[in-house]
Inverse folding.
């Protein structure tokens, strides 16, 4: 049973959080516990580890941690995920972005880059490709390496093609890729407008100013106090009237931030920075 | 035959009711949401397999026809009594220690997202014997492992009588695993829900 919980106790989860913080400098204490526990259980089952084994490798095996991080942080993503979101961005955000000389966008928690390239395609189709730049960040160096390559399996592209149709963009998703045997490589002109780098939402600070920040399906892994801290980081990273896009099931709950953001699209959770 | 007294007692004690349904469960689920009273005095959670982007009308149809207040779960929603929650398509729904939901987009379980196992297991961890779980028609084995976990945690677990289900595999898997306290037909399930 790959989802079996209860293999480790809450106290043991806390012990692992403390080890990871002390040994590797990553703080998972603000992560939602049920999800974290599920990921830890999965790692133990995949490696046939008892609790003691997992503790041992986390402390003594430096190479293990990168894979551990990859497994803990969920990297399931797809191109044009939730097509109605891209539709909304196209009609409600792009007209605003087009008024800028230079457009800077931050995709936070970008994983293997699908979201970044989806946005690059969208902006290109809107004629903003040349003046836009998209930063993709993640805490995980391994997924960023994949993102920089921009090469996806053809099988995945086929399933993304359906999403693409739903966005209302013209043409087909394959117009933006070079197909090589069973792989699809994103066009260079789209890659040129992207930069992938490591950024930890929990411990790192503001690194640029953006007209739009997209952070979808990332907040769900954080407790509300941590969500609030990251909202503050996003608020400070947005230009006045800049847009913040959260996932369709992730709303701004904190009262102090509700007054700092105006709801642009309630269903897609697109917000605009207001106030100062 | 009506539900026995022990079953009735455990049903009335349950504070959280979980329904798991997959292929062939739509009709019975639709009747359940229509029949349950506005003030059931319980929290109801529905985990239904469905494809993303396609049957998103299910939520609307259910919400329009339920007497109980119904909402699709958003991340960090708090579990409230007399509220019916539906797990969103394309996310797993987890229940956290503080009595709220968190969502998760990790790999499908039994090809399913939402997975019934995932929600049942986390409900078992947090609420254990305060739960009642009813597993309905379906064509795969999702829900069986989670239901076993619930049963071991003292929850009341009910599988739909496979002969009575459009797709018997899901409830049958739970029964074979020894996860079901009771095996009930649709009629018996309705008698219990409205008792």
């Amino acid at each position: 049973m790959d989802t079996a919980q209860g293999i480790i106790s809450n106290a043991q989860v806390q012990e692992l959080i403390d080890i990871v913080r002390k040994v590797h400098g990553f703080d998972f204490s603000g992560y939602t516990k049920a999800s974290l526990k599920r990921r830890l259980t999965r790692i133990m089952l995949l490696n046939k580890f008892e609790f003691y084994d997992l503790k041992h490798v986390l402390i003594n095996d430096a190479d293990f941690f990168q894979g551990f991080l990859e497994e803990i942080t969920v990297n399931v993503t797809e191109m044009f995920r939730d097509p109605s979101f891209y539709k909304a961005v196209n009609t409600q955000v792009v007209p605003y972005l087009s008024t800028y000389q230079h457009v800077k966008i931050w995709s936070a928690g970008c994983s293997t880059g699908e979201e970044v390239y989806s946005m690059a395609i969208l902006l290109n189709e809107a004629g903003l490709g040349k003046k836009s730049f998209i930063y993709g960040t993640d805490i995980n160096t391994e997924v960023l390496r994949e993102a920089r390559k921009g090469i996806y399996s053809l099988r995945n592209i086929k399933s993304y093609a359906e999403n693409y149709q739903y966005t209302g963009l013209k043409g087909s998703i394959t117009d933006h890729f070079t197909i090589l045997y069973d792989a699809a490589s994103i066009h260079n002109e789209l890659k040129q407008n992207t930069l992938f780098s490591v950024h930890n939402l929990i411990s790192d600070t503001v690194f640029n100013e953006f007209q739009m920040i997209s952070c979808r399906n990332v907040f769900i892994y954080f407790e509300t106090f941590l969500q609030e801290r990251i909202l503050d980081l996003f608020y400070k990273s947005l230009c006045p009237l800049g847009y913040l896009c959260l996932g369709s099931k992730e709303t701004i709950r904190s009262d102090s931030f509700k007054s700092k953001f105006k709801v642009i699209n309630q269903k897609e959770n697109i917000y605009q920075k207001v106030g100062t | 035959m009506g539900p026995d007294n022990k079953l009735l007692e455990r049903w009335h004690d349950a504070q959280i009711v979980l329904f798991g349904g997959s292929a062939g469960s739509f009709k019975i689920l639709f009747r359940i949401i229509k029949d349950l009273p506005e003030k059931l005095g319980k929290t109801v959670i529905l985990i239904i397999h469905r494809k993303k982007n396609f049957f998103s009308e299910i939520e609307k149809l259910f919400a329009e026809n339920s007497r109980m207040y119904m909402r699709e779960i958003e991340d960090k929603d708090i579990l409230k009594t007399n509220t019916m929650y539906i797990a969103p398509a394309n996310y797993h729904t987890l229940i956290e220690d503080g009595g709220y939901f968190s969502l998760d987009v990790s790999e499908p379980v039994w090809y399913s997202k939402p997975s019934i196992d995932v929600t049942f297991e986390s409900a078992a961890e947090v609420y254990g014997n305060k739960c009642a779980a009813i597993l309905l028609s379906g064509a795969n084995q999702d829900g069986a492992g989670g239901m076993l976990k619930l049963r071991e945690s003292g929850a009341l677990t009910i599988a739909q009588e496979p002969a009575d289900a459009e797709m018997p595999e899901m409830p049958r898997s739970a029964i074979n695993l020894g996860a079901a306290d009771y095996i009930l037909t649709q009629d018996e399930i309705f008698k219990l829900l409205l008792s």
Summary: Confidence is low (pLDDT under 50) at residues 1-5 of chain A.
